Structure prediction request, 244 residues.
Amino acid sequence: MLPFLLLATRAEDAAAEGEYRSFLRFTGLAPSNLHRIRVEQEPLPALRLEDYSGIFLGGSPFNSSDAEDTKSPTQHRVERELGELLDGVAENDFPFLGACYGVGTLGRHQGAVIDRTFAEPIGPTEITVNDDGAADPLLAGLPLRFDAFVGHKEACATLPAGAVLLASSSSCPVQMFRVQQNLYATQFHPELDVDALVERIRIYRHAGYFPPDQAETVIERAEAASVTWPPKILNNFVRRYARC
Prediction:
């Protein structure tokens, strides 16, 4: 099988390793079949799409809607390189799934409005799948309502032209969308279970998602949730696009 590619941008080693473990676990892929590149550490090398079955983009501390003059040189480089990669991905309708940061990255590339209107605090939220989502292969086997973990400072306020909305929540109208047939983005995190989210809360307690002294309260809320369905999206992506 041709490997899948995970593009990661988390500078903290603990967060980056935790994210990789989660993607391995919920895709069911062996490390040899999930090639990871930490784009925040080094320039993205020249990639041949034909060498991969599909591409995952993990979450990120970066926000595409940040003012340009506040972005670091690393963020500017990462955004430029991901944009160039997405040029080829979109041109070839190549399998792509971006989690959280994927909404800002794919959405912005395709002309969406990405801003701070529909930010959500870290924790569980109920996702509602619409008719288009119910018919989409990546949501096959999931109920029309399920809980997922979110935590983001920006979101998609207006979909790109031609994009198909697949799922929403009461506090964020764009939770999952598709571009063409094979490009996907979720605002929620399909790679997170409770333990992984708790680890991430501790790592990012000073990152502005919540007051640092409320970290234990945020953790208690996460631990009380039942989030089991979102990882199936990752498994569905692999099952659909794995190729020799």
Remarks:
- DSSP finds seven helices and eleven strands in the chain.
- The helical segments are 13-27, 73-91, 101-110, 131-134, 194-203, 215-223, 231-241.
- The radius of gyration is 17 Å.
- The mean pLDDT is 96.
